[in-house]
Known about the structure:
By secondary structure, chain A is mainly alpha-helical. Chain A has 13 helices and no strands. By secondary structure, chain B is mostly helical. Classes of the chains: A mainly alpha, B mainly alpha. The A-B interface holds A 23, 25-26, 28-33, 35-37, 45-53, 56-57, 275, 382-389 and B 1-4, 27-29, 32, 38-44, 46-47, 57, 59, 67-71, 93, 96-97, 99-101, 103-104, 112.
Amino acid sequence: MRRLGRAAAAAARGAVRTIPAARREWAEAVWAEAHEVPAGWQRLAWRVGGLRLVAKEAQMVRRTGILLLFAAAAGAAAWGAWPGSPVSHGAAVQGGIIITLTLLAGLPMLTRWRLGPPGSRAARWLRAGLYAAILVVMPAQGAIGLFVGTVPRGGIDRHTFDVFQGPGVPGSSSGGPNWGGEIGILFVTALYVAVVLALTARRTPVAPATLAIGTGAGLLVGAAMYTLEPLGLSPKYPTRPWLHGSAAEAVVALFWILLFGAPLIAGVIAGWRCHVPRDPEQAYAARVWQGFAAGLVSGGLGAVFVTVAGAGTTALLLRSAWVRNLVYHGQHLTASAVYGRELYASQDVAAYVFLLAAFPLVGLVMGLIGAGIANATGRRAEAGELTAPSGC
Amino acid sequence: MGSRTEFSPQTLSVLAAMCGQPSAWQHGYALSRETGLKSGTLYPILIRLADRGLVEARWQEEPVPGRPRRHLYRLTPDGLASATAAMAEAKLAEAERTEAERARARQGARPRRERGVAAPVVP
């Protein structure tokens, strides 16, 4: 027992140094008070409680760690996405990268000031997931951008493109900076970040369960879409390497069912799970909030999933033999043939922007319909039941 | 969810313990014994209350020889007002809940089960 107590004491003395100076006296207070607690298990339990306190307070250090992690990830993403000097559209891309990173760093501060910090673990994970997705898409988008606008000499069926000798050379596309495209992507990125930060803030009446339900539904939609189109959003063969004929038709049907059905069901479940106030109008508002959030998150997350996985696969195709083998397993394609298909897939990159706008709208409408269904079929608050102050 | 007050039940128990002797400085271990809270729960509550200006803290001026100085706590005037109001509100909420349970029992309905908490037996 004494050894255990001494070990806990030594651990706590070391751990106290990891918490900020302003909080240290509290840890020292627990420690000083341990001398008043009867020796034995009681004192040991008291000291273990002190260690828990230190762990909790050290979260401030964890926050600093998260900031450093974000800085490192943002730096790596910018390095991966930064265009080389021969690229004539480099100015627009560079501007896009800088503005994107500024948005990622600045919007949370603005949201925290207006709506408070993230309200739950689900909220923090959702935010982290979106940030990771954006930072992954940046270098992928940079890699794909080298091929957008290039013109192959041959058709896709010839399995080869002699682009390096043609007028459209990857990495030196003519036509000047594509400011319009960059502004469109920036607008969509800012909208996604702002909406997710707002929905996950403490003062927004969205329950953690609603965020989790929306996330699950969104991952389902995204996975179905990615299974269908791992290399872009064209129904033509090159972007659909592993599904043909009736197999593709079944997945297409499943995808359409999930696109409309998953946000609807998410909205209904989120509305049912909601702890409703006694007042019918407040109850209705609370359910609408949950349906709105569940639908929006499911549609938006589905679109983000497809964008990240699709753009990532396309970008990795040329660079990784492992990915080539995974996507075109057993087809023994030459590098130039694969290059041609990758080039073909990259022509559909603009479709991602459409998808990123369309999926959340579909999710939003279906989620609200789900909330209506939940309101019509869900339980009523019973007389005398205590009400939640902010929706759920 | 279950309470309309801004304090958790554990925080309310700490405030109640400190309300007993509002002008006296109290030790952490005494508060722990009175509230039944472990140190890992009690001290974070005291920290939050101190951050909000509801509790003030200071170190003991004359420690017992051979013992480290102890940290002492008491409610501030704001803390006393907040604690009194919160406890009155909690008492009211409890009364409302009991009344609702009785009404349900009178109507012959089965007592509702809160999530993870057994429904109280109504005589």
